[in-house]
Design brief:
257 residues; mainly alpha; Helix Hairpins; 8 helices; 0% strand; flat
């Protein structure tokens, strides 16, 4: 019984709202189906004379377009497209073939891995000790340099590639160790390798620890303790010297007597 009474009251109120909305629509001379949707959609400017004007909603403008980044200089830019691939460079017949076959054998239609392999060979030829040198420190540094620059070009386009970023950092650490050992063993060779490969060697910081308040307070406390200990040791040394002088004077007096 109570549920029926509740349903009746709800229906009566909804019917009253619909009558008011239809009356408002007729007064504004707007179609009822459009006016009802406008009433329930949000605040709009009223057209009835003597009523207050509701401000229009704020427009949501589009975001500012991101500036396009300039292209990263590739290490393969100095390789001309007419150059033959590494496998066909030593073949004399490849130079005398027609243009179509030469184009197929050139770098114009070569893959990125083939171009990268040719760049590695060029860097190796700059620093290797002799023609058969393939395992010296200089050759390893050249191979790592070509690999690191390839990773840098890739990450400039795909900056969210975490796997290749990790591989690049591992290669950078490996090259740092090799250059550090080469600098200690042969400084002239180290300078020549850095000059030929255009590598800027920077010294690593002495300490990698992050500075915090706790660490700074602990450091200051350790310095105070160290100074206090040094002061106590200096006082002990002074006392020992004084005692030694007093014993020496006493012995000298006893010998004189």
């Amino acid at each position: 019984m109570f549920t029926n009474i509740g349903l009746r009251t709800v229906l009566k109120t909804s019917a009253g709202v619909l009558r008011e909305s239809s009356a408002l629509c007729s007064a504004v001379s707007v179609k009822p189906w459009t006016c009802s949707s406008a009433l329930f959609s949000g605040p709009t400017v009223s057209r009835v004379a003597g009523s207050f004007a509701v401000p229009p909603p704020v427009r949501h403008y589009a975001r500012v377009a991101k500036k396009k980044t300039t292209g990263h200089d590739s290490q393969l830019r100095d390789l001309p497209p007419t150059m033959l691939k590494m496998d066909y460079a030593a073949v004399p017949l490849a130079e005398t073939t027609d243009d179509l076959v030469k184009r197929l054998l050139s770098l114009e239609l070569a893959s990125h891995s083939e171009k990268l392999q040719l760049k590695k060979e060029q860097l190796i030829a700059k620093v290797q000790r002799d023609e058969n040198d393939r395992s010296s420190v200089e050759v390893q540094v050249a191979i790592l340099t070509a690999r690191i620059r390839n990773y840098q070009e890739h990450l400039h386009k795909h900056h969210k590639d975490k796997a290749n970023k990790r591989r690049m950092l591992m290669a950078v650490d490996r090259r740092k160790k090799l250059l550090k050992n080469l600098r200690l063993v042969s400084y002239d060779t180290f300078e020549r390798v850095c000059e030929q490969l255009s590598i800027t060697y920077t010294f690593p910081p002495e300490y990698y620890r992050r500075l915090t308040r706790r660490w700074q307070a602990k450091k200051e406390f350790c310095i105070k303790v160290f100074k206090a200990v040094q002061k106590q040791k200096a006082e002990q040394r002074l006392k020992m010297k004084q005692n030694l002088r007093a014993t020496e004077k006493k012995e000298a007096k006893e010998e004189a007597v």
